[in-house]
Amino acid sequence: MDTKKEIRKKVFAARKQHTDAWVEEMSKVITQRVVALPAFKHADRILAYADYNHEVITEYLIEEAWKAGKEVAVPKVVGKDMVFYRLTDFSQLEPGYFQIPEPASGEIVEWPTALMIMPGVAFDRENHRVGYGGGFYDRYLEKHPDIQRVAVAFSFQMFDQVPTEPTDICPQILVTEEETCCLTSEA
């Protein structure tokens, strides 16, 4: 099995090989798959990441959430933690931690229940996740156990097996442009 470092290197190289048009097109396919999930339909609040560097584009998903009357918040890194800010307009975002788009200002939200759209570098079909190495999502989710978790990824981010840690908090549902993997019957 590859190490997390090797997996990250492979995925980052694969990301560079895909065109902006491909990323946009596949992100729209993934968005439609997520929007069709009962977990999305029933959620009033969505915690979404702001995409960066050929990740699945979340702008389309956020727009769908707004159209459906849902509240949306996006994370900002503060020290070793993530804080979520209500997002009402994309103009609130500016380059932050490692140039990742973050809210410059606004209202901080503490939602005990919501649907989180998680990023990740790589996944396997048991929904294990390799993140970027900061542990931000695991720490946030440890403090917010009632948040439902959906990860979005491109199929090239899927591996047969990825290394796991005892502190990892896996997504319950994983959506790519080709498949949806569920760990729970809730999907």
TrEMBL record:
Gene3D superfamilies attached to this UniProt entry: NagB/RpiA/CoA transferase-like (3.40.50.10420)
Pfam families, per database record: 5-FTHF_cyc-lig
Requisite cofactors: Mg(2+)
Matches recorded under InterPro entries: FTHF_cligase, FTHF_cligase-like_sf, NagB/RpiA_transferase-like
Its EC number(s): 6.3.3.2
Superkingdom: Bacteria
Keyword Nucleotide-binding applies: yes
Reactions catalysed: (6S)-5-formyl-5,6,7,8-tetrahydrofolate + ATP = (6R)-5,10-methenyltetrahydrofolate + ADP + phosphate
Keyword field: ATP-binding, Ligase, Magnesium, Metal-binding, Nucleotide-binding
Any one GO molecular function term: 5-formyltetrahydrofolate cyclo-ligase activity
Family: Belongs to the 5-formyltetrahydrofolate cyclo-ligase family.
Protein name, entry field: 5-formyltetrahydrofolate cyclo-ligase
